Amino acid sequence: MAQFEREWSNERSLHGLIKARERGVRGGRLKTYTDIEIAAAMKKTKGNYEKAGEIIGAKKITMIRRWKKMPGKLKLGVKTK
């Protein structure tokens, strides 16, 4: 009986996630810093991840990860160190 309930619950959860995606709802945590804020900080520090992170209050690794995922048009004119 417990296995049936668990499978039924999993099906309902999956169905709900599928319906939410169809409506355009995205799951997960919201980003704390926008790509524009990160690009501005990187431009101001001439591509230094650590200093840019200090400006907006993010860690160096966060800056590196977000910079790699960022669209190319926001990266124009900034060389990373």
Structure description:
This protein is an all-alpha fold. It has 5 helices and no strands. The protein has a domain at 35-75. It has helices at residues 2-22, 35-44, 49-56, 60-69, 72-75. Helix 2 crosses helix 3 (49-56). The chain is elongated, with a radius of gyration of 20 Å. The model has no long low-confidence stretch (mean pLDDT 87).
What's the main sheet like? none
Helix % is 55-70%
Number of helices: 5
Sequence of secondary-structure elements: HHHHH
Number of strands: 0
Mean pLDDT: 87
**Which percent range describes the beta-strand content?**
under 5%
C-alpha termini separation:
59 Å
Label the overall shape: elongated
Radius of gyration: 20 Å
Low-confidence stretches: none
The assigned structural class equals mainly alpha
List the helices and strands and how they pair.
Elements: H1 2-22, H2 35-44, H3 49-56, H4 60-69, H5 72-75
Report a brief summary of the structure.
With 81 residues, the chain is mainly α.
List the keywords.
81 residues, 65% helix, elongated
